[in-house]
Amino acid sequence: MNNFEAGAPEQPPAADDALLLIAEQELSDTLRLVRALPALRHRFSRVTLLCQPTLQVLLQQSLGSSVEFIAGSPDWVQERLSASWKWQVPLSSVSGVVGQTTPALPEGVPYLFAQAARVRVWGERFAHWEADHGGRKLRVGLACPEPVQQQQLAPLLARGDVHWVCLQHPAPELRAAHAQQQPLPWIDECQDLAEAAALLANLDLIIGTDTALTHLAGAMGRPVWLLSRIEAARPWLGRRPDTPWYPTMRVFNQIRRADLTDAVERVGLALDDRLFDRAQVDAPNAMRALRAGAAQYAAGRLAQAEEACRLALKLAPDGVGAYAQLIAVLREQGRSVEAQAACRQALCLQPGHSTACVNLAQLLREQGQDHLAEVYARQAQPIAAQSSPAVASDAGALRQRRAAQLAAKTASAATVEFVCATRMSRQDFWQYSPLGLSLQRLRGSDRPAPFIVFENTRGLAEVYDERLRSSDSAELLAFVQDDVWIDDFFAAERLVQALQVYSVVGVAGNQRCSPTHVSWDCVNENLERDQAQYLSGHIAYGEGPLGPITHYGSAPKDCELLDGVLLAVRKSALRAAGVSFDRRFASHFYELDFCRAARAAGLRLGTWPITLTHRSVDADVGSNAWQEGLRLYRQKHGQREANQLAH
Question: Measuring CA to CA, which residue among 86, 59, 29 is closest to residue 210?
Answer without folding.
Answer: 29
